[in-house]
Amino acid sequence: MVTVSDVADWWGNSICRMEPGVVELRGVPVGELIGSTGLVSTIWLLTRGAMPDPRQAALLEAAMVASVDHGPQAPSIAIARMTVTCGVGLNNAMASAVNALGDVHGGAGEQCVELLDEIVARQAAGEDFDAAVAVVVEAWQAKSRYLPGFGHRFHPVDPRRAPLLELVDRAVAAGVVAGQHVRAARAVETLLNQGRTKPVPMNIDGATAVIYAELGFPAPLARGLFVLSRSVGILAHAWEESTQGRRNKGPMPPSILPTYVDSASRPPG
Predict the structure, then answer these.
(1) How many domains does the chain divide into?
(2) Contact present, 76 and 234 (Cβ < 8 Å)
(3) Could you tell me if residue 9 is inside a domain?
(4) What angle do CA 228, 229, 232 make, to 5 degrees?
(5) Could you list the residue range(s) of the whole structural domain that residue 87 is in?
(6) Are residues 124 and 45 in the same domain?
(7) What are the annotated GO cellular component locations (predicted)?
(8) How does pLDDT run across 55-70, given as a tens digit for each residue?
(9) Residue 198 and residue 88 share a domain
(10) What is the side-by-side strand order in the sheet with 16-19?
(11) Same-domain status, 40 and 129
(12) Per the domain annotation, does 7 fall within a domain?
């Protein structure tokens, strides 16, 4: 026989306690957080179970600010703008956009944390640092010619890279973070650029991955944090588009029609 206690235990959690007149987040009454705690610190509290040091929160906030938007050439932003012209609400447009954030568009930060974690773990196990970097990079390149966190299809040098890494360097000097992951990321960047005439610098996904990893966030949470960050830009674009009066906005202006490829001229298969 199922009891009330069985049902209550079914939804047992350590994140939110809610009962009539009570809302606590990780044991802290929400009234104590309102007006005194920033959103980023609250994100940390809910995902990690404790409040961050203010310097940790500042570093996380920098990473999240850097990732809020990259314009409508990003598929998620374009989707948000198109969806909101179809007669749905902002929440539908945001959900449609967030659902496009997969392994290729949105997942590089998570993958880069995994890569950096592998290097740091190998070094911690006693492996030579440079050898660990070479082995991990080779293994990742065997899976894909794109190394997550490095290179950019638009920017010769990602303008968000240097400010973020400067903040990490300051945090290392102040003892806020250990510096192992940023060292690994820079070593990967150096290795990638050996013998190249066109550089492959670290990008926003790599720089934010360094921050997430240095702050101790597991790799899957790196993607979740990116999604939270990019949702800000998604909301802004969806809202702007909703005020412009367009209906059923497609991926191209109506005056431009897609090329029709005759099946007879299409390559077999």
Answers:
(1) 2
(2) yes
(3) no
(4) 95
(5) 53-249
(6) no
(7) cytosol
(8) 999 999 999 999 999 8
(9) yes
(10) 16-19, 22-25, 28-29
(11) no
(12) no
Q: Residue 98 sits in a domain of what CATH number?
A: 1.10.230.10
Q: Using the predicted structure, report yes or no on whether residue 267 has a pLDDT greater than 80.
A: no
Distances (CA, A) of 130 to 110, 118, 183: 23, 13, 11
Could you tell me if 61 and 164 lie in one domain?
Answer: yes
What pLDDT is stored for residue 154 in this prediction? 65
pTM: 0.92
**Residues 71-105 pLDDT 10s:** 998 999 999 999 999 999 999 999 999 999 999 88
